[in-house]
């Protein structure tokens, strides 16, 4: 199976603060990967380096065989990144917004219209296609931003807290959509503080703390690493991160 993403000893500092420290991981294509960690652990910085928005101080990111350092354009064409607070152009209607984003990716207008219609219908936004985005709730804006991320049909989708602001029905809709996206052979990498999402959807989970990868594997493998057989992901997560904090203080 092809490697979708490979991080090779990447590091990033902000002044004297080491946000990510010598982080390496590998994610296969067609998988759902959850990157978890406490606040300030380095999750968002890691995602931004994967997306090419931040340059690592050292190390490299390979996206489907393309180096984000040496071939950034080819690497970025295969992925989409949705931040935790996405920017929506409030004076545009959903169709206008998606056609604009599609144009940035070089998609011709007839195809862009077809793709936009399909995605808006999938996300239950079609009936709001004529409304200005400034009238949308936060959850509706979150779904529209996801539609914008999907418009160029990326093979890798990078999501930072994607369910923020969604009600229960919208969250289920997005989770089902992401599951189908992975079933089609694509790759999802997300961060979340909602452990139930990672526990139910992710095939593999990475846990970082203080910028370092402290544990990785399936849920059962993480249970073994933590010594918490049969425990929930929340219990495993707390055990691993708290033990790491204690070890770091010794």
Automatic annotation (TrEMBL):
Pfam families: ABC_tran. Keywords: ATP-binding, Hydrolase, Nucleotide-binding, Plasmid, Transport. InterPro entries: AAA+_ATPase (IPR003593), ABC_transporter-like_ATP-bd (IPR003439), ABC_transporter_ATP-binding (IPR050763), P-loop_NTPase (IPR027417). GO terms for molecular function: ATP binding; ATP hydrolysis activity. Residues 5-235 form the ABC transporter domain. It comes from the Bacteria. Its EC number is 3.6.3.25. This is ABC transporter related.
């Amino acid at each position: 199976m092809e490697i979708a993403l490979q991080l090779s000893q990447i590091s990033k500092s902000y002044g004297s603060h080491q946000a990510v420290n010598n982080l390496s991981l590998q994610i296969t294509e067609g998988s759902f990967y959850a990157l978890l960690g406490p606040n300030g652990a380095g999750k968002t910085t890691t995602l931004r380096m994967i997306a090419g928005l931040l340059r690592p101080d050292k190390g490299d990111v390979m996206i489907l065989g393309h180096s984000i350092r040496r071939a950034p354009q080819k690497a970025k064409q295969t992925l989409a990144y949705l931040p935790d607070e996405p920017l929506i152009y409030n004076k545009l209607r959903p169709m206008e917004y998606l056609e604009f984003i599609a144009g940035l990716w070089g998609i011709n207008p007839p195809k862009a219209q077809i793709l936009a219609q399909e995605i808006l219908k999938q996300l239950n936004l079609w009936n709001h296609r004529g409304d200005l985005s400034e009238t949308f709730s936060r959850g509706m804006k979150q779904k529209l931003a996801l539609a914008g991320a999907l418009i160029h049909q990326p093979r890798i989708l990078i999501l930072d807290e994607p369910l923020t602001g969604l009600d229960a029905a919208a969250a289920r809709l997005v989770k089902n959509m992401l599951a189908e996206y992975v079933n089609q052979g694509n790759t999802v990498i997300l961060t979340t503080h909602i452990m139930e999402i990672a526990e139910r959807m992710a095939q593999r989970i990475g846990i970082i703390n203080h910028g370092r990868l402290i544990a990785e594997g399936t849920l059962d493998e993480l249970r073994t690493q933590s010594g918490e057989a049969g425990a929930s992901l929340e219990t495993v997560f707390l055990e691993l991160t708290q033990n790491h904090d204690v070890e770091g203080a010794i």
